[in-house]
Amino acid sequence: MKPILSKAQLDYMKAKNKFEDKAKIMEAKIEEARTKVPEVTQEIMEGLVLETGFHDAFNELTVAENALIQWSHVTIKHEKTYRDNKAEIEMMYERLNQDPQMRARIIQLAMKIR
Q1: Closest Cα partner for 86 from 78, 66, 9?
Q2: Given this model, what pLDDT does residue 1 score?
Q3: Could you tell me the pTM of the whole model?
Q4: What local confidence, expressed as pLDDT, does residue 22 receive?
Q5: CA-to-CA distance for 107 and 66, rounded, in angstroms?
Q6: 106-113 contacts: CB < 8 A, separation 24 or more?
Q7: Disulfide check for 64: which of 15, 45, 85, 108 has CB 3.0–4.6 Å away?
Q8: What's the pLDDT score for residue 80?
Q9: What is the pLDDT of residues 46-66, one digit of tens each?
Q10: Are 64 and 10 in contact, with CB atoms under 8 Å apart?
């Protein structure tokens, strides 16, 4: 039986999959460009980012991550673990915008909430 996921979790998974698919396409386009020109310039790279939809996928992933983090912050407040460790957990959420590893950790934890 599949676990029941929240809308925020489902949206994040969808955005993450789309981003990963666009990243693969982007990598292939970069390799293709390398065979045609001696150096992939910033101008070429910017064109590939737009052509492949990589930029849009990245923005969608960021929005989905933010929604997931917000949802997890609200949802976790009902857990006993939160009440027992409120100060530490709140510090984690406060640091997520300055510490990419903390952001990734919170996202991983948010995906485990049921």
Answers
A1: 78
A2: 67
A3: 0.86
A4: 97
A5: 9
A6: 106/69, 106/72, 107/12, 107/65, 107/68, 107/69, 109/72, 110/8, 110/9, 110/12, 110/68, 110/69, 110/71, 110/72, 111/9, 111/12, 111/13, 111/68, 113/6, 113/9, 113/72, 113/75, 113/76
A7: 15
A8: 87
A9: 999 999 999 999 999 999 999
A10: no
What's the pLDDT score for residue 78? Answer: 86
Radius of gyration, CA atoms only, the chain: 18
Structure tokens at 100: 């990419």
Total number of residues shown for the chain: 114
